[in-house]
Amino acid sequence: RMENGCFAVVFGNGYANDAGKASLYILFVDGGQGGSWSSSDVVRLTPAAADNSGDNGMTTVSLLDRDEDGRVDLAYGADLQGNIWRFDLSSIDSAGWDVRIHQLFKGARESSDTEEKEQEGKKREEHQVITSTLEIGKHPDGGLMLFFGTGAEENYGLPTTQDRKTADSVYAIR
Fold first, then answer.
1. Cβ atoms of 66 and 45 closer than 8 Å
2. What's the confidence (pLDDT) of residue 125?
3. Contact, 166 vs 126, CB < 8 A?
């Protein structure tokens, strides 16, 4: 249930989307009860940051009821470019949700391909694809912790660790 009292399904736009950008979708299920949907039943939130570009898509989404009132306040989404986005959904008015998007993390590691580095004469960083579930926990000193890992399996058609010539990681951020 969202802050506006409506029940909703919240999900990312997935791996192979035509837009090439990561987006969060919120589908208000109350709207389809009459058998038809309208544009007001769907909210699409797309981070405008430059890091949300290329062959991108939102992979996983985790929801949080921060004030424990039974309604979603925050959504955290991961994308194929190694970004973690926070969506502040605490307003009753969904029209203001698009300006409350913040990039929390950018996962990139130095490439291990020595030949490529020598040819370019500089360090080359590769995105760390995030496809794992984002786990949210409380920090003992207050605030929240976000736990996740990077990497992709071969059978999804995503660049693997070997393709990207970089290492994957497990992170805990506050």
1. no
2. 67
3. yes
